[in-house]
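Quick check before the chapter quiz. The format below is the same one you will see on the exam, so make sure you can read both the input and the output lines.
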Amino acid sequence: MSGFPPEEPEGGTGHGAAHACAPEPDGTGGGPGGRLPSGGARTAYEGADDRTPPGYRVWALPGLPEVRPGDDIAKLITACDPGLVDGDVLLVTSKIVSKAEGRVIRADDREAAIDAETVRVVARRGPLRIVENRQGLIMAAAGVDASNTPLGTVLLLPEDPDASARAIREGLRDTLGVEVAVIVTDTFGRPWRTGLTDVAIGAAGVRVLDDLRGGTDTYGSPLSATVVATADELAAAGDLVKGKAAGLPVAVVRGLPHVVTGDDGEGARAMVRGARDDMFRLGTSEAIREAVSQRRTVRAFTDEPVDPGAVRRAVAAAVTAPAPHHTTPWRFVLLESEESRTKLLDAMRDAWISDLRRDGRTEESIAKRVRRGDVLRNAPYLVVPCMVMDGSHTYGDARRDAAEREMFVVATGAGVQNLLVALAGERLGSAWVSSTMFCRAVVREVLGLPENWEPMGAVAVGHPAEEPRPRPGRDTEAFIEVR
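Here is the expected output.
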């Protein structure tokens, strides 16, 4: 035996020492977190009396050699005589797993290695990139690490950290005959907190999440949102004794057998939040750019009702657009009832048919063109943007008066674009259709609008019925002239 964990910790809590998270009640090591005869660890959850506080111990495992490609991590740990018992949790730094699995590559250009491991850029600040990597993890530099590896090489994360954890667990079961949990850890930053901490990127035999929803707190109040990241908490505890530069890549937690499962469990992959539930999928600057470039025209909607509050928030964004002479040229008519939408669209359809008949169109051609308005008729919500020119200047000649009007038209368009982008931010699809501009008098009469309100199209709003097709890239140089 190597003597770890020591029966009684000596020399404080430096790297390699056991951290006692609860007092030893009798000095024999038989209390929470201490050594037990053959029955495994004992905690307040199992067999302790009411006077014994819950606790656990965590210590780093010394003696592990430099890991090389092809090494068997379980055998290396076994050779250190770890004294593992059923119910222990083994915390293994991802670096040694990567080395054993041959995830060391030549990379004179670390940025190129990061590019290769990146699926999606979440945020960029100068040379720093927060990305989603091929394992689905959101982290700095895709987890590509140039530390603790020979110069000119970088370490990539394990290809499948959950599979790595399962292999180590199985190897320890075969060689030592123990049922332990294994967590593969890596160091993460966090968007709301300064500093780094270890988290679980792979797991086997451990309850990675403790879902307390449906239970009650000590006051009897229902718990409706509490899901504890148990595997991450264990990873962080191990980092306290492993350290970042102490050469101690493996730690053991004893005293928490209730987190260990009989089977391999769902793995750390279960802790990765999917895109649909990720409320912070992009960094701030990236989100602003994406909101503009990824706004799409949506022409098919579900029957799900539109939240009027979401539309009002979008209008609040719309009226921040630039405008001439400190004016406010925007007005937005919200058609929230089916009756109001049908009444307007029927009147617009009749006016359109009259215009087309005067143009000499055939009835077949008229029917085909009128069907283009179905995007408005099928939407569960309509917005009619209008322009008002209160505060505009009059110059007395047609050229400057026309330019003045164009300024207000441009400002109204900017307001509508703000509206469309903000609707996309509310996860609502939209389509800006120009039809009300061709029958403004009809629209004003049906909706009871003032004479100086000029309808500038209609915006269909709703929940998209399907994901939009990818937008092909455009060569921006085709739209630029430099003088």
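If your answer matched, good. The two ends are 79 Å apart (CA to CA).
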